[in-house]
């Protein structure tokens, strides 16, 4: 499996881009920063978009992806998530007010966007990649994912505050080689992190210890760019070499 990190930060500013992971060129996980990096040929290869939640920093490029595909004469892309998240996107984004309702254009049977519901904690296969959504703790309905190809893969928390089930699954699930985890704020902002459904470095470490995942390789993502230096200093102080920051633009091969 190849995971290309298009964007991995908690805001889009000064060259830092928001969450988008491209798996094997054809499955996109979240659409925070896509169309400024991919050309038409690369966009055409994307057949499936898996969504973690409806916040704009994770879905904003859906509108440009769909527009470009239509202009190229391409039809049908699967937008995949649990029912609650797909409902928000269809009601609040593709609603003919913010953007045309591409779930019925040009017709309901032959629409450009096909909504594909998957179920919490059930494995679903998408073009050779197996995914399993897990309910997280955020300010809107949010899922993290197990993502595997041939029994090896990774997990990502998406945006989350303190939570239990994800880390239980992480401890039990076989073949997980690393976890991409939310560390948005520095430790001094723990109360804001909790209020806004995010984590700090010390909250992450507390979870790793509690669920016996102290040695699991971790990539932190969703750092607010304004706090990067502070979070990196805190990471150095932990003296844990299994925790690294995810870098925009890299490709991870499994
Ligand atoms: Zn969010
Ligand atoms: Zn976010």
Verbal overview:
By secondary structure, the chain is an alpha/beta fold. It has one domain (2-246): Ribonuclease Z/Hydroxyacylglutathione hydrolase-like (Metallo-beta-lactamase, Chain A), CATH 3.60.15. It has helices at residues 40-45, 56-59, 62-71, 83-92, 165-172, 190-195, 201-210, 228-238, and strands spanning 2-7, 20-23, 27-29, 48-50, 77-81, 113-117, 124-126, 129-135, 143-149, 152-156, 176-182, 218-221, 243-245, 251-253. The strands form 2 sheets. Strands 6-5-4-3-2-1-14 form a 7-stranded mixed sheet. A 7-stranded mixed sheet has the order 7-8-9-10-11-12-13. Strand 10 (152-156), helix 5 (165-172) and strand 11 form a beta-alpha-beta unit. The radius of gyration is 18 Å and the shape is globular. The N and C termini lie close together (5 Å). The relative contact order is 0.14. It binds zinc ion (2 copies). The site of one zinc ion (ZN) has 6 residues, from helix 2.
Keywords summarizing the entry:
alpha/beta; globular; 26% helix; seven-stranded mixed sheet; 26% strand; binds zinc ion
Question: Strands, helices and their partners?
Answer:
Blueprint: E1 2-7, E2 20-23, E3 27-29, H1 40-45, E4 48-50, H2 56-59, H3 62-71, E5 77-81, H4 83-92, E6 113-117, E7 124-126, E8 129-135, E9 143-149, E10 152-156, H5 165-172, E11 176-182, H6 190-195, H7 201-210, E12 218-221, H8 228-238, E13 243-245, E14 251-253
Parallel strand pairs: 3-4, 4-5, 5-6, 10-11, 11-12, 12-13
Antiparallel strand pairs: 1-2, 1-14, 2-3, 7-8, 8-9, 9-10
Bound molecules: zinc ion (ZN) (2 copies).
């Amino acid at each position: 499996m190849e995971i290309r990190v298009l964007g991995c930060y908690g805001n889009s500013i000064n060259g830092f881009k928001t969450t988008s992971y491209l798996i094997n060129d054809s499955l996109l996980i979240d659409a925070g920063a896509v169309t400024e990096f991919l050309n038409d040929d690369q966009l055409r290869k994307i057949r499936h978009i898996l969504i973690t939640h409806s916040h704009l920093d994770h879905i904003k490029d859906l509108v440009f992806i769909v527009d470009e595909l239509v202009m190229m004469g391409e039809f049908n892309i699967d937008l995949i998530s649990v029912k609650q998240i797909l409902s928000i996107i269809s009601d609040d984004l593709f609603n003919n007010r913010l953007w045309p309702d591409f779930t019925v254009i040009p017709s309901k049977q032959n629409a450009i966007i096909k909504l594909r519901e998957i179920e919490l904690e059930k494995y679903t296969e998408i073009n050779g990649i197996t995914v399993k959504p897990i309910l997280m703790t955020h300010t809107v309905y949010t899922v993290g994912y197990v993502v595997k190809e041939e029994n090896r893969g990774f997990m990502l928390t998406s945006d989350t505050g303190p939570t239990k089930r994800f880390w239980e699954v992480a401890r039990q699930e076989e073949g997980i080689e690393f976890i991409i985890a939310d560390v948005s704020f520095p430790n001094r902002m723990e109360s804001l992190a909790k209020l806004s459904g995010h984590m700090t470095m010390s909250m992450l470490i507390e979870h790793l210890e509690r669920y016996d995942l102290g040695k699991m390789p971790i990539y932190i993502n969703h750092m607010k760019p304004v706090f990067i230096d502070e979070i990196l200093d805190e990471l150095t102080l932990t003296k844990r070499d299994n925790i690294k920051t995810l870098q925009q633009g890299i490709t991870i091969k499994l």
